[in-house]
Design brief:
The protein has 390 residues and is of the alpha/beta class. The protein has helices at 71-79, 124-134, 145-153, 162-177, 197-209, 235-250, 270-282, 313-327, 342-350; strands at 2-10, 19-26, 29-33, 42-45, 50-51, 55-57, 83-88, 138-141, 143-144, 182-186, 213-217, 253-256, 287-289, 332-338, 354-363, 366-376. The strands form four sheets. Strands 1, 2, 3, 4 and 5 form a five-stranded mixed sheet that branches. A five-stranded parallel sheet has the order 9-10-11-12-13. It has a three-stranded parallel sheet with strand order 6-7-8.
Length: 390
């Protein structure tokens, strides 16, 4: 079957300017780009629409859902956004790469669980073969250092023995030889947080040997964390400098996930962090990061269970709003509320908030529509905002 996408804006993904033309699709593939539709072709008017190569999600955890019985459910929200390739196995945890005889199989996922897949594939090669046959999108897999390490000795603290280190490096190398694009570290999580620099250097050297990428979730993303002594200086910068040292000593390619500044006190570290990256790149090191330029404060309240359903929520929400306005100096406060959570909607309304829009969050295979409520410091409670569509 031949289909013609008429009058669409085309972005070729090569950095060239967008242009207007048509696309001939034949048997699900692009056959030609032409402004003239072929004869006897189904024509779809794409005026106002854009055609582009599939986008890449550079930080995904969908390896934990790729082999599930309803795998498409977990990928569909991304595919609807044009994402067709997922870099998976991030933050030190992957659904593969661990010792098949491990006594810690229920811990190898760290943040995730093997219950999400139809069966276990400890070896990377086995997982890759299975995923190639049924994954609903393209997968670019990393192997998780935390998963491999946990499979050997659990999440316990302390350095690996020489035998354990050898086994870990062998499993990582098996994955790299099998096609893994690199190794991911989750240094904020167990067991990555316990790995000494010597261990991380050995991992980095192995990644460098195969000219792959080392992706890292750092030990700290804020000026104060649980990873370093309280008065040691900015914990975010300490964590970043440790990784910069590893790059200098090994020459490994580094993807830093994520360069975010959690907490208002950390925002001042932005310039120093960028100087570290710029300094490394100026010396020829291949280091990159992803970030979100927006700085959004999050304020919340937590009740003891004995205080639930007693009418305190509105009072707490109003107190949080006042704190954001009067102490933190913000001009607007937002609240995201599930469309079926009527008590929370009432709390938002009592706090002077009005609906500004809607969005759909996808969680564990379920689409969850949410309302976006907000209130501004100036004229709060006295402004009228029409509800936006999705």
């Amino acid at each position: 079957m031949t289909t013609y996408l008429q009058n669409c804006t085309i972005m070729d993904g090569m950095g060239n300017p967008a242009f207007n033309s048509g696309i001939v699709l034949q048997d699900g593939r692009i056959a030609a780009i032409t402004a003239t539709p072929p004869e006897d072709t189904q024509v779809l008017n794409c005026t106002g629409l854009t055609a582009a190569p599939g986008f890449i999600d550079a930080h995904s955890h969908n390896d934990w859902f790729a082999l599930g019985q309803e795998a498409a459910t977990y990928f569909r929200p991304f595919i609807r956004q044009g994402i067709t390739t997922f870099v998976v196995g991030n933050c030190g945890f992957s659904a593969y790469g661990y010792n098949g005889n491990t006594l810690h199989v229920n811990e190898v996922g760290g943040l995730f669980t093997l219950n999400a897949v139809t069966r276990r594939y400890p070896a990377f090669s086995e997982w890759a073969k299975a995923a190639d046959g049924c994954a609903p999108a393209n997968l670019a897999p990393l192997v998780g250092h935390g998963t491999v390490r946990t499979g050997i000795r659990g999440k316990g603290a302390g350095a690996l023995t020489p035998a354990e280190m050898s086994q870990m490096l062998t499993l990582l190398e098996d994955a790299l030889q099998g096609g893994a694009l690199g190794v991911s570290l989750g240094l904020m999580y167990e067991p990555g947080i316990f790995a000494p620099k010597e261990e991380l250097l050995e991992v980095a050297k192995l990644v460098k040997k195969y000219d792959r990428v080392l992706t890292v979730h750092p030990k700290a993303e804020s000026s104060i964390s649980l990873s370093y002594p309280l008065l040691a200086g900015s914990h975010l910068l300490i964590a970043l400098r440790e990784l910069a040292d590893i790059v200098r000593e090994t020459g490994v390619k580094l993807q830093y996930s994520h360069l975010i500044f959690v907490g208002r006190r950390t925002w001042k570290d932005e310039g120093a962090a960028l100087e570290i990256f710029e300094g490394l790149r100026a010396k020829g090191y291949d280091v990159m990061f992803e970030t979100d330029k927006d700085k959004v404060p999050e304020i919340g309240y937590l009740f003891n269970r004995t205080c639930w359903h007693k009418g305190y929520a509105a009072e707490a929400a109003i107190a949080c709003k006042r704190y954001a306005f009067d102490v933190l100096g913000f001009d607007e406060v937002f609240s995201l509320v599930r469309d079926t959570n009527y008590p929370s909607m009432n709390v938002a309304i009592r706090a002077g908030m009005l609906v500004r829009g809607r969005f759909t969050k996808h969680y564990r295979g379920e689409d969850m529509p949410h309302y976006i409520f907000s209130v501004r410091k100036c004229g709060e409670g006295n402004h009228i905002v029409k509800e936006d569509g999705e």
